[in-house]
Amino acid sequence: MSQENYLYYLEKALTSFKNKDYDTALSLLDEALQYNYDVPQLHFLMGKIYAKELTTERLKMAVISFSQAIELKPDYEEAFFERGKIYLQTEQIEEAIQDLEKATNLNPSNKEAYVLLAQGYLSKGETQKALDLLKGISSDQNIDFYIQMGKILIGVGDYDQALKYLEKGKEIDRNFVILYELSAKAYEGLKNYIKAVQELEKAAYLNPSQDQYFKQIATDLLKQAEEEYKKQNLKKAAKYIAMAIDIDYDVPLESKHRQILKEAVSSCILENKNKEALSFIDCIERIAQYDPQLKELKKKAVKGLPLKDKIMRFLTDIYTK
């Protein structure tokens, strides 16, 4: 009779679990355990439910449930895998690696276990071991595979190869924000900061509440400005600095950035491009304290404007002071 009773509650619990009615499922599993405590599947399902709520207490309870399932069934591959995932989430890396290795030994076709195992080795700094693990499995449609490959290849400085894997990940799902974050890092490693900015803009579009994207975009624009300055593209460099300030007023500017802007102002005045010179001057005034040299440059730029523009400039200065 007890056998029939626990199966009745287990089947009901499975139905509630599939319907995402986790509280009811837990109550039914409690009932089932009253009839037969030694059924591994009951403890496993309890662990799966506890793991749905990512609080410290619930994750601890999930580990206890999976551990009980493993004690009752030492070759319970799914329980090793689920417990390994929690250990990885809670940064218990050695324990995670042990469980995930056990899971892969019990079920060599569990590709997600290999991906997570690689992530564990990556967390330990064993990059090559992680890379070898991932290269040894077929990726199919597993987006985590491409994400982890991207992370590992960025970690070893193989940015071009990382981008290839990340692009394949985007072919599966273009709404995974981390794919764009990692692509931006890869482009930063290649010093292609404009491409990095484009990837961060896509990430910001998908997750606009994250200010970090805009801060990083501004930082990358400053780096691009430095690259342009090295190539003697002075005004292009100045424009990127101005863009960075527009995006993030608090972007960390150095004296070299202010110097680039000043040089661009002087260059514009010499070319009689006074409106452009004044746009750079406005940019400097937003970020720098009083500067006598800048005051003189501003006078020269305003003097070179047509009368109508001089009047407009005069009115603008009045209203912005």
Task: Write the SSE topology.
Elements: H1 2-18, H2 22-35, H3 40-50, H4 56-72, H5 77-89, H6 93-106, H7 111-123, H8 127-135, H9 143-155, H10 159-172, H11 177-189, H12 193-206, H13 211-230, H14 234-247, H15 255-270, H16 274-287, H17 292-303, H18 307-320
Helix pairs in contact: 1-2, 2-3, 3-4, 4-5, 5-6, 5-7, 6-7, 7-8, 7-9, 8-9, 9-10, 9-11, 10-11, 11-12, 12-13, 13-14, 14-15, 15-16, 15-17, 16-17
* Beta-strand share of residues: under 5%
Low-confidence stretches: none
How many beta strands in the DSSP annotation?
0
Helix count, DSSP H or I runs of 4 or more residues: 18
What is the second-level CATH architecture of the domain at 211-321?
Alpha Horseshoe
Q: Would you tell me the structural class of the helices and strands?
A: mainly alpha
One letter per element, helices H and strands E, the order comes to: HHHHHHHHHHHHHHHHHH
Q: What shape does the CA trace take? A: elongated
Radius of gyration: 29 Å
- Note the main sheet: none
First CA to last CA: what distance?
87 Å
Overall pLDDT level:
87
CATH classification, class level of the domain at 211-321: Mainly Alpha
Overall description:
With 321 residues, the chain is mainly alpha-helical. Among the domains are: 139-209, Tetratricopeptide repeat domain (Serine Threonine Protein Phosphatase 5, Tetratricopeptide repeat), CATH 1.25.40.10; 211-321, Serine Threonine Protein Phosphatase 5, Tetratricopeptide repeat (Alpha Horseshoe), CATH 1.25.40. It is 79% helix and 0% strand. The protein has 18 helices and no strands. The chain has helices at residues 2-18, 22-35, 40-50, 56-72, 77-89, 93-106, 111-123, 127-135, 143-155, 159-172, 177-189, 193-206, 211-230, 234-247, 255-270, 274-287, 292-303, 307-320. Helix 6 (93-106) runs antiparallel to helix 7 (111-123) and helix 13 runs antiparallel to helix 14 (234-247). The longest helix has 20 residues, at 211-230.
